[in-house]
Specification:
Elements (H helix, E strand, L loop, with lengths): L6 H13 L4 H8 L3 H14 L8 H10 L13
Helix pairs in contact: 1-3, 2-3
């Protein structure tokens, strides 16, 4: 499991990513984190700052119900 980073560290990464001057891959490399972390932190910050809408619980439930399930290769059903 990746180690937790301080909020100030995440805020610095998000601020740099939002400037769109440096590719996220380079930001991730420079800060020693994954590109997925950059993406997730920016997404969460956008929602927190009102720049993006979070899915409602009804939308999340609908997505779970309508998304196709990929069967396990062994044929086992998950619980």
């Amino acid at each position: 499991m990746p180690k937790a980073r301080p909020e100030e560290f995440r805020n610095d990464v998000v601020a740099l990513a939002r400037k769109r001057e440096i590719p996220w891959t380079q930001i991730a490399k420079d800060f020693g984190i994954s590109e997925a972390s950059v993406h997730n932190w920016v997404k969460k910050a956008d929602i927190a700052d009102g720049l993006a809408a979070a899915p409602t619980s009804n939308e999340s439930a609908e997505l779970r119900l309508t998304s196709p399930r990929i069967p396990h290769p062994s044929g086992c059903q998950s619980r």
